[in-house]
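# step 3/5: fold
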Amino acid sequence: MTDDIAIARESKAWPFAEARALLDGRLKNGVGDKGYVLFETGYGPSGLPHIGTFAEVVRTTMVRNAFQALAPDLPTRLFAFSDDMDGLRKVPDNIPNKEMVEEHLGKPLTQIPDPFGTHESFGHHNNDRLKGFLDSFGFDYEFKSSTDSYKSGEFDAALLRVLQEYDKVINVILPTLGPERRATYSPFLPVCPKTGRVLQVPVVERNVDAGTIVYQDEDGAKVEMPVTGGHCKLQWKCDWAMRWHAFDVDYEMSGKDLIDSVRLSGKICRVLGSPPPQSLTYELFLDDQGQKISKSKGNGLSVEEWLTYAPVESLALFMFQKPTAAKRLYFDTIPKSVDEYLSHLKSFPGQEVKDQFSNPTWHIHNGNPPAEEGRLSFGILLNLASVCNSDNPSALWHYISRYAPDASPERDPLLNKLVSYAIAYFNDFVLPQKTYRLPAEAERPALESLKAGLEKCGQGASAEDLQSLVYEIGKANEDTFPGLRDWFKALYQILLGQDQGPRMGSFIALYGVEETLVLINRALAGEDLSAPS
C-alpha cells in the first residue's frame, strides 16, 4: 500500500468513506467473475434530465474516483441506466403534440412516436438528451437502455430466476400492498402483442420449465407469454432488484424518497441470489421557502439556470457538500458556492496530502484541480459590476488590470468567465433589489473621516492598509456605530445600495481610492448614486 493510499484511507471526506465501506464490505472478497467494480445511476426518461440527474451522477462519480484512489488496480465502470421500457402513465406538460402522445399511453417509451419529430421514438429522443446532458459535463459512463437489455436477452437469465422464485418475490411485495392490489399483483407485466401496451393484468399460470406465464387479457382470453426476450417487463421495484442481480451492481445511491423501495428491492435481490449494492441515501433539495423541489411545480433551480450565472464547478461543489442533509437550492446560493469553490481551489496547492484528499476540489477534479490564482472573489466582482454600471466585461477588466497588472482574460480564463457571470447575476438578481440611502446626519462625520483617510492613503494603498483604515474609523465612531458590523452595513447601504457587501479594503483597492472618494463625495452631497456620475 503506497503512502498516498494509506493517507486516503484515513480521509473523512464522504466519497472516501463510501469507497472504504464498499471496499471493506461488499468487495472484501474481490470483484468476482465480472472482473470490475460496477457503479450505477438510474434515470426515468419520461422527462428531460434535470438537476437531480446531475446531482446523482456527479456524486456517484466522486465515489468512483475516491474508490479508484484507494484501489487503483481494480477496474471500475459506471452505467447510466434508462428505464425506457416503462409504460408512459401520463403525458408530460412540456412537450409538443400532446394529443398524439396521449393515444399511446401505456406503451413503452421506446414504442411511442417522438413528439419532437427528431428520433425514432419518444424514449430515444429523451435518451439522446440524457447522453448529451452527461457528455456536456465530461462524465465517464456507459449508457444502458432497459429496452435493449430486455430485448437482447441480457436480462433473460435474471428474468427466469424471478420466475423460478416467483412466490418468494411476491411475498416480499404483498405485505406492502392493499387488499385489492394484492389480489391481482404480479411482478411480470406482459407487453400486449396486439396493442403494444404494458399490461397490469393477473398472472393465472406459470411454467418455470418453459419460461412462460399465462395472463388473463383485458378481453378475458388467456394468453401464454415468454418472460424473456422483451415480451414482459417487471414491476419497477422488482425490476430494480433484477437489474442489480443481472449486472451485479456494486454501488448505487438514491434519494430519501426511495428508502422503502431500496429496502424492498434489496430483499428481492437477495431472493434472486445476490447481495444488493451498497447505497447512499441522499437528501432532497428544498426551494427558497423550504419546500421540496418538484419538477411539476417548477420551483427551485435548473442546471441551465445555475450555469447562466456560475461555472459548473460551483454546482459540483454544492452537490459535494453534505449530501445527506437537506439544502436550499435557489439563486441566492450561487455566489456563496462560487466563492467557496474559489477558496478551496486557492488553498489546494499549499495543503498537505491528507488535507488535499478532504478538499472538495480534489473530488470535483478527480485529484487534479487546475492551477488558478483566485485573485478576486465572486462577491467582489458583483460589487464591481454594481459601481461600474456596465454590461461590458472590458469595463470590469479595466479595474482588474489596474489592481493586478499581470492579470488578463487570456492568462486567467476562470476569472474571465467569472466577470461575465457576475454581470449576468448582478443584472438579474442584485440590481432589481438595490436601494441606496443618504447618510444620516450622525453618520456624516465617519464618512468625512474615511474621505480624509483615503486622501492620505493615495491610489497605491494596499488592501490590508485600506481595511485597517476602515476598521479604525468604525472603532473611532462607536457612539454612532455600536458594532463594526453596523459601520460596514452603513457603508454598503450608502455606497453600494445593499445590506451586505465585500471586504471593504479589497473592494476599495480594486475599484480605486480616487473612484471610491467620488462615491463618498456624491453621497455626502446628497446625490443619487443609482445614477451614473
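# step 4/5: annotate
The chain has a mean pLDDT of 93.
# step 5/5: archive (pending)
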